[in-house]
Amino acid sequence: MLQLVLLLIALPALAQEPIRGFFPENFKDQHELEERAKAIPQPARLHIYMERMASKPHHAGSPGSKAVADYLAAQLKEWSLDVHTENFEALMPYPTARSLEMTAPVHYRAELKEPVLPDDPASGQPDQLPTFNAYSASGDITAPLVYVNYGAPEDYDELKKLGVEVKGKIVIARYGRNWRGVKVKLAQRNGAVGCLIYSDPRDDGYFQNDVYPKGPMRPEQGVQRGSVLDMALYPGDPLSPGWASVSGSKRLPVSDAKSLPKIPVLPISYGDAKPLLAELGGPLVPEPWRGALPLTYHAGPGPATVHLKIDSDWSTRPLHDVIAKIPGSVYPDQWIVYGNHHDAWVNGASDPASAAAALLETARALSVLRQQGWQPKRTIVLALWDGEEFGLMGSTEWAEKHLDELRNNAVAYINSDLNGPGRLSASGSHTLETFVSEVLRDIVEPKSAMSLLEASKVIRNRARADLPPEFHLTPLGSGSDYVPFLDHIGIASLNFGFGSADSGGVYHSIYDSLAWFDKFSDTDLSYGRALSQITITSILRLSDASVLPYDFSALARTISGYVEEIERGARRRSGVVDLRPLQSQLNRLESAARIYNEALSKAPAASEDRIRKLNDVLLHAERTLLLPNGLPGRDWYKHALYAPGINTGYDAKTLPGVREAIEAQRWEEANQQARRLAQALGTLAAQVEQAAHLLN
Predict the structure, then answer these.
(1) Residue where one domain finishes, among candidates 267, 291, 314
(2) Domain match, 579 and 673 both
(3) For the domain that residue 162 is a member of, what is the CATH number?
(4) Same domain, residue pair 339 and 310
(5) Domain termination site, one of 269, 297, 314
């Protein structure tokens, strides 16, 4: 009640707050529309959607996934939206054989099964995918074991210092720090013949909190499933890189799919990892490598020797993307796209039902507004993707199918994935940083009277007291469905979600259920409601803004910080990279952005024809940052500013062409990439100069 009173008190002042992209005479009406919209989402409805989606296992390619897609389509149609399902297909292997045993110095056969818990009825349901890593190579191997910590590049460097040989061995890595697919790629690169990945209780178990069902963390036999595709090369169907995989389309032979690993890999619990690690000899590992199991951590190799056998049914299976559209009344050929996936590894109450439910409630809110007489100026596309867990399948295939339309029409892509209690994570294109800060300014944080913007500044100050209390978007790397839109097509993108690092440890297990969520996660769904309020407000502003709300000054300021980082990186490595052309074009962009912002602040409401021309220029601005031939060694990724790190996976590499060349000390390539980046910034600066000219 107190939050509601404070919100109502704030409304008169709120109505005077500026909104980027709107002229002052429209501020009041827009704020009033948004307040009506933000009042619509209801936690009780969110829970109903979650119950329906997470009631049974529904992994991609299964009848369960099709049933969820049918439910979503029917629900959206009930709200009078234009809905259709687009079908694709992708190589999505299911496991047919999995075994792991220690053959020396003692015998141990791994459980490889998550036990049913009486407190959680979903844990005993049929049709669950077993514990496995999708796209593991098939294999039947026996070899000594080596512990490689998180399996990051620096971990292999440390093993070399310790004199530990990885070639010909099976490595065991713990989950965390980098993406699981990178762990496999680096194991393979270092000569390992197999890979095990386990969840150490220090990171994901009793060291953090009580384990499920007493607490939220991963129990002893809990296992994190997940894909191990090399998505830093390209996401989506491994057999159709760069084109949509529809029935009858061309497909690569499996042997030619570069994103597939070449060694067998299996995820295991810390219950199964403990006896294996206990039998390792060799040198003691460094203190930071030591987990929370009751044993002394050695690197090996051996004497622990393990036999690993894995096989899969390498079949092409169906994908079902559910697409709803609300046509624009003024600019129907300009699209705002908002997506969340609907497939899960098992029941997926948290991942993805928690955030997919928020998308549904956003759709319902937009439908209510339409019934009240509102119509968006721009077309709104709402998407529920299939196959995200296998490697961004549904979103990538849809984006590749509609590439030309998206390139010509898309204003922005908004993404969510999973949601829970805690701080807001907001990542995205820095052309939208000012836009997002204004959205968060106007939404109340669920557990306080602060705005989300104020809350983000408080958290920032707690983390780094030396930093000014400013809001900044973090850059996008990989791991969710924004990747094809930003990195391949050059659409300004955002990703939103609430959560915290210690909010639970049942990720990708059979225990990601409604029973767990209702007890340990967003128990009153206040954060689900807040996520829906964020996406509603973002969509209303993007769809109805007179001028598309990009801010190129925020972008230029961010790029300037990235350039300073790569300068320092080059100096540390005693390399020479000529950044003068890059700095020159960055200065030009900063000047153009300043002139554009000044012109925008003084511009009266212009004619519709002039506004249309201006928005067309602005819409294509982010596309100018695409590199025609893509990044070195991975031409599917084309954005000059953002990409997932080739050796980090989830985490972003900013200015990736230059930065990764510097990190690898490939100085000729670094200089070449700096010139390409300078050219892209010059093209963007010219686009911003043209926009300023249209305003003047």
Answers:
(1) 314
(2) yes
(3) 3.50.30.30
(4) no
(5) 314
d(CA 36, CA 369): 8
CB-count burial class (<10 Å; 0-12, 13-18, 19+) for 569: middle
Helix runs in 307-411, H state only: 355-371, 388-391, 393-401, 403-409
Instruction: Please say whether the beta carbons of 551 and 433 come within 8 A.
Output: yes
Q: Which residues contact 154 (CB under 8 A, 6 or more apart)?
A: none
Q: Determine the pLDDT at residue 14.
A: 52
Q: How far is CA 189 from the centre of its chain?
A: 26
Q: At what angle do helices 433-441 and 526-544 cross, to 10 degrees?
A: 130
Domain at 457, CATH number: 3.40.630.10
**Burial (0-12, 13-18, 19+ Cβ within 10 Å), 502:** exposed
Q: In sequence order, which residues have a C-beta less than 8 Å from that of residue 1 and are 6 or more positions away?
A: none
Q: Which structure tokens are listed for 348?
A: 């997926």
Mark whether 323 and 310 lie in a shared domain. no
What is the rounded distance in angstroms from the CA atom of residue 654 to the CA atom of residue 565?
Answer: 10
Q: Note the pLDDT tens digit of each residue in 415-456.
A: 999 999 999 999 999 999 999 999 999 999 999 989 999 998
* Residue range 460-488, pLDDT digits in tens: 656 555 555 689 999 999 999 999 999 99
Q: What is the pLDDT of residues 392-412, one digit of tens each?
A: 999 999 999 999 999 999 999
Claim to verify: residue 278 and residue 338 sit in the same structural domain: no
- Give yes or no for a contact between 150 and 244, defined as CB atoms under 8 angstroms apart: no
Same domain, 532 and 559: no
Which residues, 6 or more positions from 12, have their beta carbon under 8 angstroms from its beta carbon? none
Amino acid 463: pLDDT: 55
Do 487 and 499 lie in a common domain?
yes
The structure tokens 């624009």 sit at: 328
Domain that holds residue 23: 2-91+317-544
Residue 167's nearest CA partner among 146, 144, 149, 191 is 191
Total domains in the chain come to 3
**31-48 confidence digits (pLDDT tens):** 999 999 999 999 999 999
Residue pair 683/624 in contact by the 8 Å Cβ criterion: yes
Rounded (10°) angle between helices 552-572 and 580-602: 160
- Condensed to tens digits (0 to 9), the pLDDT of residues 56-114 reads 999 999 999 999 999 999 999 999 999 999 999 999 999 999 999 999 999 999 999 99
Q: Are 379 and 305 in contact, with CB atoms under 8 Å apart?
A: no
What's the CA gap between 665 and 671, in Å, rounded?
A: 11
**Residues 426, 431, 433, 436: is their CA dihedral positive or negative?**
negative
The span from the CA of 238 to the CA of 252, in Å, is 8
CATH number at residue 644: 1.20.930.40
Q: Three-class SS of residue 411?
A: strand
pLDDT digits (tens, 9 = 90+) for 482-516: 999 999 999 999 999 999 766 689 999 999 999 99
- 294 & 324 share domain: no
Spatial distance between the Cα atoms of 468 and 196, rounded to a whole number of angstroms: 43
Do 224 and 77 lie in one domain? The reply is: no
**Local structure of 17: helix, strand or coil:** coil
- The C-alpha atoms of residue 143 and residue 165 are separated, in whole angstroms, by 12
Residues 6+ apart with CB under 8 A from 110: 99, 100, 101, 268, 272
